[in-house]
Write a structure and sequence with these properties.
The chain is built from eleven helices and nine strands. By secondary structure, it is α/β, with parallel strands linked by helices. The protein has two domains: 186 residues, Rossmann fold; 62 residues, no CATH class. It is globular.
């Protein structure tokens, strides 16, 4: 089975940090964070299945993603490591920590809660699907076409990070498996955690103060599952604090993980 693609930052002798992106993201979104954390950690920013340069596989499920990650950990000879996950990747990191606590040192979860979410990506899928990729000449042209369905400039730029020149034909192609993601959207939005799941290791939740992905009602459930949990809010950020408030985000992560290393 083909392995997941990842971008590595820092020396392999340093503590390993696995980074999991969110839905329709990729390791590219984490390049700056990986670079800034590389002085203290061996950061591996992973392309999850059906994203980036990793294999396209059905179904797009949390069980499948867990299997992929465990295979990567084994193949790379990674022992106990830190996990950091954003959004969908945060749910994945939570589940791995509960299911395989023996391989997780510390856990960082970014702007997501262990709960079911409503479908919020239907419009994105439709807009991406409707692009006539073979006839596209430029990324700017794609942006102009998407604007009618996705007026938010920042969201369009995020989606367009998945647009690649088609090396085997004309025009462009998506580097995400849209059919697989769309078919499994209900699974993606669900919580993979069971009522009995627990993780006792040190955990940091980083939330965006302007994000709607979490609220005060989520806190008791988070603390019930993650007994050694610290929750930090970056007030000026939305759902993507690693992009919108990178300096504050990196500072929180580095401080938290470094304390873990010094105390272990």
């Amino acid at each position: 089975m083909s392995q997941l693609h990842f971008r590595a930052y820092g020396d392999s002798s340093k503590p390993t940090l696995l980074v999991f992106h969110g839905l329709l993201g990729s390791s590219r979104n984490w390049h700056s964070v990986g670079t800034e954390l590389s002085s203290g950690f061996h950061a591996l920013c992973v392309d999850l299945r059906n994203h980036g340069m990793s294999p396209f596989r059905m179904p797009h499920s949390y069980d499948g993603m867990i299997s992929d990650v465990l295979s990567l950990i084994e193949s790379q000879g990674i022992g106990r490591c830190h996990l950091l996950g954003h959004s969908m990747g945060g749910k994945l990191a939570m589940k791995i920590s509960c299911q395989c606590p023996e391989i997780v040192n510390k856990l960082v979860v970014v702007d997501i809660a262990p709960k079911m979410y409503p479908d919020t990506h239907d419009n994105n899928y439709e807009a991406m699907r409707d692009l006539d990729l073979p006839s596209l000449r430029t990324r700017k042209e794609a942006d102009e076409i998407l604007e009618s369905k996705i007026p938010d400039w920042a969201k369009r730029q995020f989606l367009l990070t998945n647009l690649r020149r088609d090396e085997e034909g004309e025009g462009f192609r998506w580097s995400v498996n849209l059919p697989a993601l769309e078919a499994n959207q209900r699974e993606i939005e669900s919580s993979p955690l069971l009522d009995s799941d627990r993780f006792a290791g040190p955990t940091l939740f980083i939330l965006g103060g302007r994000s709607s992905y979490t609220n005060d009602e989520d806190i008791p459930k988070i603390r019930g599952i993650f007994s050694d949990c610290r929750i930090e809010t970056i007030e000026e950020s939305g759902h993507n604090p690693h992009i919108e408030a990178r300096e504050a985000f990196v500072s929180l992560v580095a401080s938290f993980l470094s304390r873990s290393e010094n105390s272990s």
